[in-house]
């Protein structure tokens, strides 16, 4: 199977000052999909411009025709399944059925406390995620939903006409722990990883590949336990968070080598960050565009 190449465009630029042109250029370059982060603010970008994911994707849908669009990733940190479902159904309609929902349990960053709550523990995040995903699945596939849970409730929420994509838009579930992997196996059309964060600072690329191999084996085990063929679950690597950091984007050959090693692990999609000067995602735009245009044909 050919490896799909996608990009993630951070929403830090005003739409008419580079934001719009990046999404249009991504489609021209032939990317399979273009995603954006769903955060209220993020890391070193906190004190600068940062725009909302859903309006950004709506605008992107209006200026593109073929490329898939989505989040990497949405989380329960500041989302409720009922309102999120309504926005996703609207997005899927505007885009003509091109939306993928990347979804994860969330973390401890700025989003975790922006609504005035204390940061949830890893267990609390996992508990909420385990309720969030099944409820969102129901909201996107049923016309009316009532539910009373430990964390989320809804009374006769209406979601007519539902998604353009049937039975609903696809979920790409970001997970590495056992509970998250069970959700990916049960509800995901894809599984997402960024690698092992413990290796980012002092690990080696070889150690990272081995850690990701172990993750894929755990995904296969979760699929087997769910009675599902693991090969039917797409596997997505969001790059930039392994010990390789930006090195794969230094040349076409470097990227093909990096992507090929992960393709051998069963990955079906590699996501690279749109270059951002003076940031962790700095890269030569010309090299980036050459990778976009030429790498896929070398990874068949």
Keywords:
about 300 residues; alpha/beta; two-stranded antiparallel ribbon; 10 strands; globular
What is this structure's SSE topology?
Blueprint: E1 4-8, H1 19-28, E2 33-36, H2 53-63, E3 68-74, H3 81-95, E4 99-103, H4 122-141, E5 144-148, E6 153-158, E7 171-174, H5 178-187, E8 190-193, H6 205-225, E9 234-238, H7 252-263, E10 269-273, H8 285-294
Parallel strand pairs: 1-2, 1-10, 2-3, 3-4, 4-7, 7-8, 8-9, 9-10
Antiparallel strand pairs: 5-6
Radius of gyration: 18 Å
- What are the segments in which pLDDT stays under 50 over at least 5 consecutive residues? none
Q: Total helix count?
A: 8
Strand content: 15-25%
Q: Helicity level, as a percent range?
A: 25-40%
State the end-to-end distance. Answer: 6 Å
| Broad shape | globular
Give me the count of strands. Answer: 10
Element string (H = helix, E = strand): EHEHEHEHEEEHEHEHEH
Trace the largest sheet across and list its strands. Answer: 1-2-3-4-7-8-9-10
Report the average pLDDT across residues.
97
Which structural class is indicated by helix and strand composition? alpha/beta
What about the largest sheet? 8 strands, parallel, barrel
Q: Would you give an account of this structure?
A:
With 300 residues, the protein is of the alpha/beta class. The chain has 8 helices and 10 strands. It has helices at residues 19-28, 53-63, 81-95, 122-141, 178-187, 205-225, 252-263, 285-294, and strands spanning 4-8, 33-36, 68-74, 99-103, 144-148, 153-158, 171-174, 190-193, 234-238, 269-273. β9 (234-238), α7 (252-263) and β10 (269-273) form a beta-alpha-beta unit. The N and C termini lie close together (6 Å).
């Amino acid at each position: 199977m050919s490896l799909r190449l996608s990009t993630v465009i951070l929403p830090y630029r005003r739409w008419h000052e580079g934001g719009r042109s990046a999404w249009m250029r991504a489609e021209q370059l032939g990317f399979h999909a273009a995603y954006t982060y769903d955060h209220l603010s993020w890391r070193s970008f906190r004190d600068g411009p940062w725009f909302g994911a859903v309006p950004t994707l709506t605008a992107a849908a209006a200026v593109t025709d073929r490329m898939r669009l989505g989040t990497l990733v949405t989380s329960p940190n500041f989302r409720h399944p009922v309102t999120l479902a309504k926005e996703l159904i609207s997005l899927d309609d505007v885009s003509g059925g091109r939306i993928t929902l990347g979804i994860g349990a969330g973390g401890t960053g700025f989003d975790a406390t922006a609504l005035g709550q204390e940061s949830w523990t890893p267990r609390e995040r996992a508990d909420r995620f385990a309720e969030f995903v099944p409820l969102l699945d129901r909201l996107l596939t049923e016309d009316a939903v009532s539910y009373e849970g430990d964390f989320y409730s809804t009374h006769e929420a209406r979601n007519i006409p539902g998604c353009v994509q049937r039975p609903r838009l696809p979920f790409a579930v970001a997970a590495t722990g056992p509970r998250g992997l069970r959700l990916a196996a049960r509800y995901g059309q894809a599984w997402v990883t960024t690698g092992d964060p413990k290796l980012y600072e002092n690990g080696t690329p070889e150690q990272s590949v081995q850690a990701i191999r172990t993750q894929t084996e755990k995904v296969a085990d979760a699929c087997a336990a769910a009675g599902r063929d693991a090969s039917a679950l797409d596997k997505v690597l969001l790059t930039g968070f392994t010990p390789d950091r930006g090195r794969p984007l230094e040349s076409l050959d470097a990227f093909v080598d990096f992507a090929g090693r992960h393709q051998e692990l069963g990955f079906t999609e590699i996501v690279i960050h749109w270059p951002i000067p003076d940031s962790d995602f700095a890269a030569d735009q010309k090299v980036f565009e050459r990778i976009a245009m030429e790498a896929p044909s070398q990874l068949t």
